[in-house]
Design brief:
Elements lengths: L6 E6 L3 H12 L4 E7 L2 H11 L3 E5 L7 H11 L4 E6 L4 H9 L5 E3 L3 H13 L7 H17 L10 H11 L4 H8 L3 H15 L4 H10 L6
Parallel strand pairs: 1-2, 1-3, 3-4, 4-5
């Protein structure tokens, strides 16, 4: 197949074994080519900037920056890059977060060998990839909101607060977070205090539990 028809793919997952398996599935297809790999969200953003992929496949749960956070940033800075999420969990919250982050849907790792190639092609056609569980979730969500006249809930915290929450939950100190994000320690502490107040939490342990429930880190 001519090179012009090939889909250039960025693959981001913090488990090298998973990346290797997914790459084998993708590289076996003449129209799909993995041009870059990344082990966490920040690395994925840099790889997208330098390698110019057509499609980014992002694991939802990664250190430093989740796939959802990376997807939001890519949607903002490189809107031409199509997005597909990869996850171990069949979770409605993750599915709707993925859609709101600009992704076309997500693929469960357990059935990646069956669904991933089709998901890539569907995404590149500009269509959402909906596996059976996701279709059911969409219908439940729509009928539930329509029946009660409810809008979609707004996010409780800002993107920056979410970024800091994740790093706090991963065990980084305020100084380390400040260095990573190139902001002052004082700014980190202010965001941290805002998080505790907004979420009604007391300490780092409760922030970590919240981050696990929100899917920012794995338990």
């Amino acid at each position: 197949m001519p090179e012009a028809n090939e889909t250039r793919i960025l693959l981001a997952d913090d488990h090298q074994l998973v990346r290797r398996g997914v790459r084998l599935i993708l590289d076996a297809e003449p129209d799909l080519t993995v041009v870059a790999e990344a082990g966490h969200g920040a690395e994925a953003l840099e790889a997208a900037r330098t390698r110019h992929p057509d499609l980014a496949i992002l694991d939802i749960a990664m250190p430093r920056m989740t796939g959802l956070q990376a997807a939001r940033e890519l949607s903002r800075t490189q809107p031409d890059v199509r997005l597909l999420m990869l996850t171990m969990y069949d979770n409605e919250q993750y599915f709707f977060e993925a859609l709101s982050a600009g992704a076309s849907g997500y693929v469960l790792k357990s059935v990646a060998d069956r669904d991933l190639v089709e998901a890539c092609r569907v995404t590149m056609r500009g269509e959402p990839f909906l596996y059976p569980g996701a279709v059911n979730a969409l219908i439940r969500n729509y009928t539930g909101r329509a029946g009660h006249g409810e809008p979609l809930p707004e996010r409780a915290i800002t993107g920056r607060e979410e970024e800091i929450l994740k790093l706090v939950a991963e065990g980084h100190t305020s100084q380390q977070i400040a260095d990573m994000l190139v902001i002052s320690v004082k700014t980190v502490e202010r965001h941290r205090a805002n998080l505790l107040q907004k979420l009604g939490l007391k300490d780092r342990l409760e922030l970590t539990r919240y981050a696990i429930r929100a899917g920012l880190i794995e338990p």
